[in-house]
Design goal:
Blueprint lengths: L8 H26 L5 H26 L2 H9 L6 H22 L5 H30 L12 H23 L6 H28 L4 H4 L4 H22 L4 H24 L4
């Protein structure tokens, strides 16, 4: 008999915030390396969002382990065959990248900008890993539904990208930067990210087949269809396509994307809980 892990909300938040951190850092690094001076606000916000979220993820992981020394032990020895060890190391390394990028984002000097761009382009890969490895981790278990989710990592990565962009867009709106070029570029990128996430989700469900029953018709079905598919993906995409020039609706869309990203992690984690 397989033992079902009794994961609580700390793990759901860890998955959710880790995805945002990876997506925000990716958006910041791309805006920093390939954007113009007008995109500088996007880069700074993305870097400054990723740093505290990584710190919170580390705190959540330590709290879930119960004994802080267990986390330090995982950092002390790298075990490439142990997913938890790989995850702890990836979180720690990505934390170093987010710290360096956030610190350098306050300096406009050419050397600092050059170093920040180089660091950002390398750090993207660790951000991608943090956003997706949780999905890969649970899909490599022997538990029903999880073990069939071969695209879980890709789905979490797509969701991380959309929620990271949505977070940056929402902060731009709240700080009065919704009229700039950076806002328009982030919102346009988020439209593509949402569309891509919908496609990955559809393919994910097709490949799951009958194993998708806990999501499609079980106790989590209403939350999956209503909270994720409709509120978290379909409505935001419709708002982006129909009223993308209205900043207030763009902010509403960003909030709904974040709701959908959280619901995705919640229904996946809770789908095998007894």
């Amino acid at each position: 008999m397989l033992k079902t892990p009794h994961w609580e909300m700390m793990i759901v938040w860890y998955f959710f915030l880790g995805g945002i951190a990876g997506g925000a850092y990716f958006t910041a690094a791309v805006a920093d390396a390939f954007g113009t001076a007008r995109d500088r606000a996007v880069a700074r916000i993305g870097y400054l969002v990723a740093l505290p979220l990584v710190v919170i993820c580390g705190a959540l992981l330590i709290a879930d382990l119960g004994v802080p020394m267990r986390f330090l032990n995982m950092l002390g020895t790298f075990k490439f065959w142990d997913p938890m060890s790989i995850g702890a190391w990836a979180l720690g390394v990505f934390g170093l990248f987010t710290f360096a990028s956030a610190l350098l984002s306050f300096s406009p000097s050419p050397p600092a900008v050059a170093w920040r761009r180089k660091i950002g382009l390398v750090g993207i890969f660790f951000g991608f890993f943090l956003a997706s490895y949780t999905g890969v981790l649970i899909s490599n278990t022997a538990l029903p539904f999880w073990s069939e989710g071969r695209l879980m990592g890709a789905l979490f990565l797509a969701s991380g990208a959309s929620t990271g962009m949505a977070t940056i867009a929402l902060i731009l709106f709240l700080t009065g930067g919704a009229g700039g070029e950076g806002w328009r570029k982030v919102k346009q990128a988020d439209r593509y990210a949402i569309g891509f996430e919908l496609c990955v989700l559809a393919l994910f469900l097709v490949l799951l087949g009958s194993a998708a029953a806990p999501l499609l018709g079980g106790r989590l079905a209403v939350l999956f269809w209503g909270g994720l598919v409709v509120v978290g993906l379909a409505v935001p995409l419709a708002l982006e396509l129909v009223a993308h020039r209205t900043a207030a609706l763009g902010a509403v869309s960003a909030v709904l994307v974040l709701v959908g990203g959280f619901v995705l992690r919640y229904v996946v984690v809770m789908s095998i809980q007894t």
